[in-house]
């Protein structure tokens, strides 16, 4: 159902209040363009080609620095003494810049990003001007002082034409004769951005690009090195296909063009909680994007584990392959430096830093730089951890069917970076198996946070971790094979006679051989294969070997799976009359769903249980789940016969589209005969469920 959590609504409402200072920027439209108002408007623009990055050194690696928003957002005593967001002023920004230059600049931290609240209104051309009470010397002077410290200057803007600079459509646009604000909006003055606090810009008018150019050029004149554009859609729970007013892809393209042509290297990043189905647009037209809601809790600390640090483990996976030089997945600020203010245990602080580092996320601190404690400094200045981050090699999970998770990244030198996480609220042991990680034989295991090496380790790494705790290892095999053993073999689809497999690349391999029960059944030049000619309702153990010339790697860890029974796969509708619903779970319409219906409103005490899921033989089957999710991601437990439970992660569309089904899958052990599968989450709402197929 279209249920955005109270937390998210509260978080972004608070953000809107703190940012309610003349939202001036540009915005876009994908709806059909209406007639442009006004006279003496230049000729209509032609279709624009993608603009390559003019300054490829910008965002070649994830950036490091500091941002003001975490302190602006907190209710921690004394931080915002004059009301919400009052922390932001010239004195406080420069104090933080001096502290960063002293404490963190030697480790690569260099950006000072001034977030929402610096602006108050616009000049005679509708371009942003500084709040004179907070920044009496203006933003260029602030940037100049930041540059004198050897640091870089970042600034904030939002998508859309600010209400206050519209001025009945009579505001002229700088360096664009004949162009006024009336020429760049729609006749009905439709609104846009994550708060609906700006007019949507009509890019059918060439004046619109001129407006973006005018602001980007102004920022360049101020010496800006970094631009954060906020409220962008599709994303931020807006911009679904039936909501074109919140599709801002056109003005992201316009702003990228403006930034590239402004005559100064400036990083251009997008916020917040962008929709993944537009990832190609974001990659082509920005240096990075927020994949999630604000990390801050808007409470009496800066963050809390449940609000909303832990969500990143679930929201990131669908974005992993989109990160790379020039554009990175942004997980938001890293608030691990001041234990008293952060609202986290030391174990949580380490997990927070570890996760950001292994995933090549920008490391920008949100803490009060003048108050960093010894443990916070240790976390933020560990050169090995920073090097992992700067290598630009994002990690990925081996699986997410439990709260004890292993994330890994294979490195060019044959080593593997491995992080173990216990996301549960109680202590647990977490294990990473060498076989699944593509490792053979003995290895040296370096515990990076403990600064300890252990030689002659084989088979696995394992650690007893506290609630929300972690370990970070670099595992270096004593013998490096080429080709190496393929890692992370996974079944992605099963029919009566076929199984689809994929795996991670084998170092040095030019092709792969696929085996079923030790017999070669397929070859592949890529890291996926569809094995055909299998028997129905038959268990197979699949492995893969990398090939290079006459050399063959060791076999991957096996995946053991039953094919579907004769007549299968069988689909079980969630809304079937045989299903059991509890709490507020209920049937809702869904035009694109199977049967035109789904079960929604699941979570907390509301559950759905599907019955009579029948298999002939006890064993592991690939269970596929069709769902809809307009959020960033949601999770549930699938409990089989009130016994074994598995976690499943539903990748969300992030644009409030609850009508487009997606499919996820996971291997589950089922018992011969009829099984029941209960879908639940006692701690939060989940995706809407369409069907389960076995």
Automatic annotation (TrEMBL):
<comment type="similarity">
    <text>Belongs to the glycosyl hydrolase 27 family.</text>
</comment>
<dbReference type="InterPro" id="IPR002241">
    <property type="entry name" value="Glyco_hydro_27"/>
</dbReference>
<keyword id="KW-0624">Polysaccharide degradation</keyword>
<feature type="domain" description="Fibronectin type-III">
    <location>
        <begin position="485"/>
        <end position="567"/>
    </location>
</feature>
<dbReference type="InterPro" id="IPR013780">
    <property type="entry name" value="Glyco_hydro_b"/>
</dbReference>
<dbReference type="InterPro" id="IPR036116">
    <property type="entry name" value="FN3_sf"/>
</dbReference>
<dbReference type="GO" id="GO:0004557">
    <property type="term" value="F:alpha-galactosidase activity"/>
</dbReference>
<dbReference type="InterPro" id="IPR017853">
    <property type="entry name" value="GH"/>
</dbReference>
<dbReference type="InterPro" id="IPR013783">
    <property type="entry name" value="Ig-like_fold"/>
</dbReference>
<dbReference type="InterPro" id="IPR008979">
    <property type="entry name" value="Galactose-bd-like_sf"/>
</dbReference>
<keyword id="KW-1015">Disulfide bond</keyword>
<dbReference type="InterPro" id="IPR005084">
    <property type="entry name" value="CBM6"/>
</dbReference>
<feature type="signal peptide">
    <location>
        <begin position="1"/>
        <end position="27"/>
    </location>
</feature>
<keyword id="KW-0119">Carbohydrate metabolism</keyword>
<dbReference type="Pfam" id="PF16990">
    <property type="entry name" value="CBM_35"/>
</dbReference>
<dbReference type="Pfam" id="PF17801">
    <property type="entry name" value="Melibiase_C"/>
</dbReference>
<protein>
    <recommendedName>
        <fullName>Alpha-galactosidase</fullName>
        <ecNumber>3.2.1.22</ecNumber>
    </recommendedName>
</protein>
<dbReference type="InterPro" id="IPR013785">
    <property type="entry name" value="Aldolase_TIM"/>
</dbReference>
<dbReference type="InterPro" id="IPR003961">
    <property type="entry name" value="FN3_dom"/>
</dbReference>
<dbReference type="Pfam" id="PF00041">
    <property type="entry name" value="fn3"/>
</dbReference>
<dbReference type="InterPro" id="IPR041233">
    <property type="entry name" value="Melibiase_C"/>
</dbReference>
<feature type="domain" description="CBM6">
    <location>
        <begin position="570"/>
        <end position="694"/>
    </location>
</feature>
<dbReference type="Pfam" id="PF16499">
    <property type="entry name" value="Melibiase_2"/>
</dbReference>
<dbReference type="GO" id="GO:0000272">
    <property type="term" value="P:polysaccharide catabolic process"/>
</dbReference>
<dbReference type="GO" id="GO:0030246">
    <property type="term" value="F:carbohydrate binding"/>
</dbReference>
<keyword id="KW-0326">Glycosidase</keyword>
<keyword id="KW-0378">Hydrolase</keyword>
<keyword id="KW-0732">Signal</keyword>
């Amino acid at each position: 159902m279209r249920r955005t959590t109270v937390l998210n609504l509260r978080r972004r409402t608070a953000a809107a209040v703190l940012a309610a200072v003349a939202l001036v920027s540009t915005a876009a439209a994908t709806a059909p363009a209406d007639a442009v108002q006004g006279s003496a408007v230049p000729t209509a623009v032609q279709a624009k080609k993608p603009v390559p990055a003019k300054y490829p050194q910008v965002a070649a690696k994830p950036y490091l620095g500091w941002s003001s928003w975490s302190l602006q957002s907190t209710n921690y005593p004394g931080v915002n003494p004059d009301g919400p967001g009052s922390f932001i002023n010239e004195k406080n920004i420069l104090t933080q810049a001096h502290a960063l230059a002293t404490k963190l600049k030697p480790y690569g931290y260099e950006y000072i990003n001034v977030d929402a609240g610096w602006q108050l209104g616009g000049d005679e051309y509708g371009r942003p001007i500084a709040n004179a009470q907070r920044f009496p010397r203006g933003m260029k002077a602030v940037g100049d002082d930041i540059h004198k410290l050897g640091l870089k200057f970042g600034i904030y803007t939002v998508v859309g034409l600010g209400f206050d600079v519209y001025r009945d459509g009579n505001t002229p646009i700088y360096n664009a004769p004949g162009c006024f604000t009336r020429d760049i909006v729609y006749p009905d003055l439709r609104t846009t951005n994550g708060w609906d606090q700006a007019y949507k810009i009509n890019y059918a008018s060439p004046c619109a690009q001129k407006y973006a150019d005018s602001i980007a050029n102004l920022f360049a004149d101020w010496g800006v090195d970094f631009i954060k554009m906020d409220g962008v859609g599709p994303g931020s729970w807006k911009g679904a296909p039936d909501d074109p007013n919140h599709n801002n892809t056109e003005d992201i393209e316009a702003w990228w063009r403006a930034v590239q042509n402004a005559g100064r290297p400036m990083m251009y990043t997008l916020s917040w909680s962008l929709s993944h189905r537009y990832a190609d647009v974001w990659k082509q037209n920005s240096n990075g994007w927020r994949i999630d809601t604000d990390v801050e809790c808007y409470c009496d600390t800066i963050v809390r584990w449940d609000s909303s640090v832990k969500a990143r483990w679930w929201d990131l996976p669908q974005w992993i392959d989109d990160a790379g030089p020039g554009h990175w997945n942004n997980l938001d600020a890293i608030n691990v430096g001041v234990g008293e203010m952060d609202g986290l245990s030391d174990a949580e602080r380490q997990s927070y830093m570890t996760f950001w580092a292994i995933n090549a996320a920008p490391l920008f601190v949100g803490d009060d730089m003048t108050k960093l404690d010894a443990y916070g400094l240790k976390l933020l200045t560990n050169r090995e951890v920073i090097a992992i981050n700067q290598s630009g090699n994002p990690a990925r999970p081996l699986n997410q069917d439990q709260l004890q998770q292993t994330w890994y990244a294979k490195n060019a030198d044959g080593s593997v970076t491995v992080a173990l996480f216990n996301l549960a609220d109680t202590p647990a042991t977490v294990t990473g198996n060498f076989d699944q990680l593509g490792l053979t034989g003995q290895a040296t295991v370096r515990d990076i946070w403990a600064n300890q090496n252990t030689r002659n380790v084989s088979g696995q790494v394992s650690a007893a971790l506290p609630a929300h705790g972690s370990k970070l290892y670099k595992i270096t095999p004593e013998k490096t094979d080429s080709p190496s053993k393929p890692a992370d073999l996974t079944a992605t689809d099963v029919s009566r006679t076929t199984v689809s497999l994929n795996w991670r690349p084998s170092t040095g391999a030019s092709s792969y051989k696929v085996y079923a029960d030790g017999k070669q059944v397929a070859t592949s030049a890529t890291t996926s294969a569809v094995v055909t000619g299998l028997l129905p309702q038959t268990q197979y153990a699949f492995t893969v070997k990398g090939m290079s010339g006459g050399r063959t790697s060791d076999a991957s860890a096996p995946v053991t799976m039953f094919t579907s029974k004769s007549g299968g796969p069988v689909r079980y509708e969630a809304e079937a009359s045989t299903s059991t619903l509890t709490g507020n779970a209920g049937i809702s319409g869904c035009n694109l769903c199977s049967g035109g219906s789904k079960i929604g409103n699941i979570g907390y005490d509301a559950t759905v249980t599907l019955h009579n899921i029948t298999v002939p033989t006890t064993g592991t089957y690939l269970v596929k789940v069709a769902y809809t999710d307009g959020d960033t991601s949601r999770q549930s437990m699938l409990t089989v016969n009130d016994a074994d439970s598995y976690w499943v992660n539903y990748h969300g569309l992030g644009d409030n589209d609850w009508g487009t089904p997606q499919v996820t899958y996971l291997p589950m052990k089922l018992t011969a005969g009829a099984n029941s599968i209960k879908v639940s989450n006692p701690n939060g709402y989940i995706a809407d469920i369409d069907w389960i197929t076995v």
